[in-house]
Q: What sequence folds into this?
């Protein structure tokens, strides 16, 4: 197996500290990453080399082994007593399956998303894959914020968005926003993220939904609270009001003597469940009693008569306090 100089590959000195090595790796990874150099076999090969180098030099324990024994230190059955660094030769082969391969590439996972692994790694000269190229990787996922109206979140909608990627390119995306989606939830658009490489699929696009408020409506989970103005006469005598519920107008019965701030439940008139479209929350009518600003002479006289009756019932008190002579 040929000996590789990982320091030369990353362009750092042998006494470089961890911070310098990491900085050099990130710079090269960004330059040669398949996401930014698609269709360039030389760049993909270079990316594999720098990733391989950093997986060793970026780990203090592995770096110590490499500095002492070279790449042979990572072969299966390695015996330091049987190894001669000067010859650069060692008879053995490494096998990293399952968790071992994940450990080897964990630095890449954090920087570039998920890499498919699984196969036999013969030293550091190459990878014989059982299920495809292990350096192939699903494209990175994208996330974008989108803002919709309150009613669109309640009923669902189809929207078209313009997404601008890190490379400055814009693309038009059509998406269905499901009924009942809540603030901050995400809609996944499969395969609409960055392209994959090495034959792997593209990443996904996640739309993070933000919902504009609607005056008079407050959402709490699947329930919605609707503030409704109720004339003081209806609140006192009882009656009916029309409530603009989420999907249609609903006639709501107001009991006699209803107070301002009272809540009246309308079962099944709330937000639809995204998991079970047949299930809805409830709507709650929040009563806000209204008083007329202008009264006719007749209304004025009747209210004064009513006020007189109320004073008699309360022992001559006016406006909740003792009667002033």
A:
């Amino acid at each position: 197996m040929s000996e590789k100089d990982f320091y030369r590959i990353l362009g750092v000195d042998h006494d470089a500290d961890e911070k310098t090595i990491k900085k050099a790796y990130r710079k090269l990874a960004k330059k040669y990453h398949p996401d930014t150099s698609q269709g360039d076999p030389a760049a993909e090969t270079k990316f594999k080399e720098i990733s391989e180098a950093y997986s060793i030099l970026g780990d203090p324990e592995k770096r110590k082994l490499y500095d002492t024994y070279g790449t042979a230190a990572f072969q299966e059955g390695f015996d330091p007593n049987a190894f001669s660094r000067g010859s650069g030769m060692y008879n053995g082969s490494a096998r990293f399956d399952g968790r071992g391969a994940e450990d080897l590439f964990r630095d890449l996972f954090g920087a570039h998303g998920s890499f498919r692994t699984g196969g036999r790694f013969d030293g550091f000269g190459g990878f014989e894959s059982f299920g495809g190229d292990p350096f192939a990787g699903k494209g990175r996922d994208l996330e974008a914020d989108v803002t919709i109206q309150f009613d669109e979140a309640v009923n669902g909608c189809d929207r078209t968005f313009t997404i601008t990627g890190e490379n400055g390119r814009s693309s038009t995306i059509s998406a269905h926003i499901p009924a009942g989606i809540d603030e901050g939830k995400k809609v996944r658009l499969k395969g609409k993220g960055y392209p994959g490489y090495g034959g792997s699929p593209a990443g996904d696009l996640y739309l993070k939904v933000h919902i504009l408020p609607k005056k008079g409506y407050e959402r709490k989970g699947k329930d919605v609270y609707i503030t409704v103005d109720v004339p003081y006469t209806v609140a006192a005598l009882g009656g009916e009001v029309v409530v603009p519920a989420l999907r249609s107008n609903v006639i709501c019965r107001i009991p006699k003597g209803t107070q301002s701030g009272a809540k009246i439940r309308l079962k099944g008139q709330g937000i639809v469940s995204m998991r079970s479209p047949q299930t809805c929350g409830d709507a709650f009518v929040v009563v806000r009693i209204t008083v007329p600003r202008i009264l006719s002479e007749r209304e004025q006289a009747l209210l004064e008569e009513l006020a007189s009756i109320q004073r008699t019932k309360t022992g001559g008190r006016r406006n909740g306090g003792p009667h002033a002579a």
In short: The two ends are 111 Å apart (CA to CA). The domain at 6-129 is CATH 1.10.287.110 (Helix Hairpins).
